[in-house]
Amino acid sequence: MMKAQDLPKVYLSKNLRCALVGLQYILLPISTTLMLSTPAKSWDWIMLVVFVVVMAASMFVHTTLALSIGNICQGRLDRLDERERTMRDATFVTAFEIVKAVLSVAWIYGVLAFFLGWWLPQGQQIWILLWMFAMMAYGLPTSVAAFTMPETPRDSI
């Protein structure tokens, strides 16, 4: 069975990694917007195909980012050296801080929306938004690592 660290490594420059992180966090809201904007009963084949293509592109970007950083976020801890463990720990702490900030903003918005009559998700929309948040949170450690990892020479790959 192939281990996470045995996967091939892909060389991406730091600028390209940062651009892919941005692309990933643009594709997920686009797919969520497609799902929220169209009632479930009126989904036609074109919307479904567009949604699947956008989600596949997002997953491709995530996998490419994971391979470009040596898959340190999903790999086994005992197979990482001390530098990689330190980077992984810092990545997870940063990702956790981002998730806390997003949840705090969502909570504040929810309270204000309840009292001021702003838009709040209803029924199926709640599950769609939770799904998007879960997808973004799942890819966040890899994205943070790809965004913060220093440039590596192509020869070290």
Strand content: under 5%
> What letter string, H or E per element, gives the SSE order?
HHHH
Structural class: mainly alpha
Outline the biggest β-sheet: none
The low-confidence runs, each spanning 5 or more residues with pLDDT under 50, are none
Number of E-state strands: 0
Radius of gyration: 18 Å
Q: What count of helical segments does DSSP give? A: 4
Mean pLDDT across all amino acids: 81
Roughly how many Å apart are the termini?
Answer: 22 Å
Shape, per Cα inertia axes:
globular
**Proportion of residues in helical segments:** 55-70%
What can be said about this structure in brief?
69% of the residues lie in helices and 0% in strands. With 157 residues, the protein is mostly helical.
List the helices and strands and how they pair.
Elements lengths: L13 H24 L7 H24 L13 H35 L7 H25 L9
Helix pairs in contact: 1-2, 1-4, 2-4, 3-4
Main features:
157 residues, single chain, mainly alpha, globular
What does this structure look like?
The chain has 157 residues and is mainly alpha-helical. Helix content is 69%, strand content 0%. The protein is built from four helices and no strands. Helix 1 (14-37) packs antiparallel against helix 4, helix 2 runs parallel beside helix 4 (124-148) and helix 3 (82-116) runs antiparallel to helix 4 (124-148). It starts with 13 loop residues before the first helix and ends in a 9-residue tail after the last helix. The relative contact order is 0.17. The model has no long low-confidence stretch (mean pLDDT 81).
